[in-house]
Amino acid sequence: MSSPEALLLTTGLSRSFGGLVAVDSVSLQLEPATIHAVIGPNGAGKSTLVNLLAGEIKPSSGSIRLRGEDITGWKPDRIARRGVARTFQHTNVFPDFTVFENCRLAAQSRNVHLMRWLKPAESYREWNDAARSAMAMADLGGRAGVPAHSLSHGERRALEIAMSLATAPALFLLDEPLAGMGAEESTRIVALLKRLSADHSILLIEHDMDAVFALADRLTVMVNGAVLASGSPGAIRANAEVQAAYLGADVPMTAL
Amino acid sequence: MADPERPRRSTASHRVVTWWLVLGILALAIFPAIAEKFYLQLITKIMILSIFALSLDLLVGYAGLVSLGHAAFFGVAAYALALAAPASDAPNLWLTLPLALAASAVIALVIRALVIRTAGVYFIMVTLAFAQMVYYFFHDTRLAGGSDGIYVNTRPSLEIGSIDLAQDLHFYYLVLAVLAGVFIFLGIILRSPFGRALQGIKANEQRMRALGFPTLRYKLAAFVLAGTLAGLAGYLAAAKEGYVNPELLAWHQSGMVLMMLILGGMGTLFGAVIGAFSYVLLQEWFSNLTKHWQLLMGSFIVLAVLVLPRGLAGLGQSIALRRRSSASSDDVEP
């Protein structure tokens, strides 16, 4: 089942909160340069899965391997420095910092020497360059000097992705990047994710099915914490179990 | 070279800060020419407390760590000088100062290491508890005179030319130089990658961790640095007064320096200095008016917090900002 080129591999990953099993024995494999979407109804355990992969919470059992290395139980900052960048379901940027400073600080995280006390932070060219190219990639180049709190909702979501990008990750964990967006803003973020997927892996949690099927190379469907099905978008679309369990009665088949 | 990424406001305000700094240092430098001995000593004391407040501002205002035990580091360095000083000769500053700073740094390192995961109100309580332990250590043992305290018979000597720190004027200029040095040093640090990381941690520690910053290590470094700078102030205080007692470590002292910060405005270096000056000067003024000066002081601080949530320095900032934005309202980014 596991292939040597898997970027991220989870085996029997579980997490329970008291009696509730939020994530139930999830085995997942992410390949390089692919978008792997995880879908499922609210409460399926998708966000808990992201928090487990990012080290924000510890698994009750199971293991997580990144490029073959066991990272189970690592702290979030250590996982991040290994090339896993995550975004949050609720926008999580530094509101009082400018767009540039948000991205520059993100790039600075690649080199966390404690004793850099004397030179101004802006004099480190490699961080400025990383911040600039991340802003350009996310179409925020013209907003560099604007404080993050005066951005539009869509721009803040784009900034969050730009910050992740500035950390030069191999893998993005994106928790509902399209949440609360209008059609135009969504299109913009979908295009950005498409560009990113050329040389990054993305684990995408998303409710917008149009976006999911436009982007995903692979799909995993979660219900009640467990994986119901995993496969290509075509296979998932045709899967009778998925139709019955996840789509239920209310969602029209054409949504898939 | 103009850097489009840097907002115009920050470079402009940087220039303003530099001007105020130069102005402030100049004013303090010529002050002794017009001052009586009493005021010379008073301003010396205020400048020492300014260093103390600056050290706490690094923690509270920039790293977001509210400590109610900051006097421990101030007092430990003061005691270090008192204990290291020879009975009759002047202690050598170049030997006793590093010793005192090291003592404060070690205490800060130990305390922070023991409370590494506490945050918020727990951190406040734990720092208070540890500071009280240090207080009772000096209060209840005969090591340094117990509750009576201990004398530093002679001021430290600088061993440079004809500088004689026993003269209040010379000592005044030493303290002024140290204050200016600490102010500039912190200004540099806050613009450095380390300082930016601290400000990020204060704004949103979870996001910083998710970006890859080992935030606990940054907070440890900030705590030790702040403790060491508080020790610098404590050393100067012991040298000035020639006398050290457990009150220097007491929680009143920690509360007072926090009060100075709140009054002056946290998160700005000027706020710390303005806070120290206004606190002590108000205290002088109120205690001349009435022996119930603490009542007046308390009311004033409550009023200041209600009217000026960002302190006296915040008041100055918002006046300056309003003036600038009305002067250049067509200059704002789209």
**What percentage of residues of chain A falls in helices of 4 or more residues?**
25-40%
> Mean of residue pLDDT of chain A?
88
Biggest interface goes to: A-B, 47 and 32 residues
What is the radius of gyration of chain A? 18 Å
Can you characterise this structure?
The complex is a heterodimer of chains A (256) and B (334). Chain A has 256 residues and is of the alpha/beta class. Chain A folds into 2 domains: 1-83 and 170-256, P-loop containing nucleotide triphosphate hydrolases (Rossmann fold, 3-Layer(aba) Sandwich); 93-168, no CATH class. Chain A has helices at 46-53, 76-81, 99-108, 125-137, 153-166, 183-197, 209-215, 233-238, 240-247, and strands at 8-17, 20-30, 35-39, 61-66, 69-70, 84-86, 171-175, 201-205, 218-223, 226-231. In chain A, a hairpin with a 2-residue loop joins strand 9 (218-223) and strand 10 (226-231). Chain A is globular and about 55 Å long. With 334 residues, chain B is mostly helical. Chain B has a domain at 34-249. Helix content of chain B is 74%, strand content 1%. Chain B is globular. Residues 1-9 and 329-334 of chain B have low confidence and may be disordered. Chain A binds chain B through residues 54, 56, 75-78, 80-81, 85-86, 88, 92-98, 100-101, 104-106, 108-110, 112-122, 124, 128, 131-132, 144-147, 163, 167, and chain B through 3-8, 188-189, 191-197, 200, 203-204, 206-215, 217-218, 221, 333.
